[in-house]
Specification:
By secondary structure, this protein is mostly helical. The protein contains 1 helix and no strands. The N and C termini lie far apart (35 Å).
């Protein structure tokens, strides 16, 4: 369960970075 939570957080971080790159 903990690993799944970490994976979700990483996915959110990647999504944020991708959005920031598109904005730049």
């Amino acid at each position: 369960l903990e690993l799944q939570g970490e994976f979700e957080e990483i996915s959110k971080e990647k999504a944020r970075l991708a959005t920031n790159e598109v904005r730049i």
